[in-house]
């Protein structure tokens, strides 16, 4: 399981730890302004949420020192700190072990088949400005353009209603959704209850920082649309203590069955030698017949 580390000001929701299984994290909350370095394990996988600028160098240093450490970050935070991560991890082995998930195409791939990335490169000619944040902004603008073509007047309510009315929205080669509020009785319940589902991105892939710096490096996991059905991996499984109890109980039951079978065999096997039975073969024997249905 991965360890989840978050800043004190970060709000956690049920959709946050998608790269780690729900219920499989040891959560540590650090105070505002406190460095992340002392919380990073020597080995294993750690999910860090609530990154600050000083955390970038600390994470890069720990990744270089600890070959068995993998750090997962949110794409939103990675995008804001991309330039710092690129500087700190460029040409390092640790770049392969900084991990994030995204549904975007590669912002720097000049041979991409993605229409969104191609349009982005047509609009922004300067490759120095090709970053995840700028591509995200461009894709968001393209999405808003699709929405504006279908609404007469834009407002927060109109925007929300459009997403949930259309369920799934396609912009260029990007698909967003499914958005579903059919379980909500009233509009007032939408922001308060968990009756609505907003699955957002589709075709999500897992990247390393090494791929972010070099588009020719394949993703760690190919694009897929998660079911968003979160399940405790331990659900339906026995805990360690329960498993030990089952083994001990089964062993005791086995010994008991053996005892019940073997002991009577040795103790009762001579009971047919009745002392009152005739000793001579010619002595009379009384046979009693009973009715047998």
UniProtKB/TrEMBL annotation:
Membrane topology: Multi-pass membrane protein
Cofactor(s), by name: Mg(2+)
Entry-linked InterPro entries: Adenylyl/Guanylyl_Cyclase_3/4 (IPR050697), GRESAG4.1/3_peripasmic_2 (IPR057398)
Any one GO cellular component localisation term in the record: membrane
Keyword Transmembrane attached: yes
Biological processes annotated in GO: cAMP biosynthetic process
Catalytic activity of the protein: ATP = 3',5'-cyclic AMP + diphosphate
EC number of this enzyme: 4.6.1.1
Highest taxon listed in the record's lineage: Eukaryota
Enzyme class, spelled out: lyase
TM stretches of this protein: 243-268
Keywords: ATP-binding, cAMP biosynthesis, Glycoprotein, Lyase, Magnesium, Membrane, Metal-binding, Nucleotide-binding, Transmembrane, Transmembrane helix
GO molecular function, one term: ATP binding
Transmembrane is among the record's keywords: yes
Family to which this protein belongs: Belongs to the adenylyl cyclase class-3 family.
PANTHER family per UniProt: ADENYLATE CYCLASE, TERMINAL-DIFFERENTIATION SPECIFIC, ADENYLATE CYCLASE, TERMINAL-DIFFERENTIATION SPECIFIC-RELATED
Protein name: adenylate cyclase
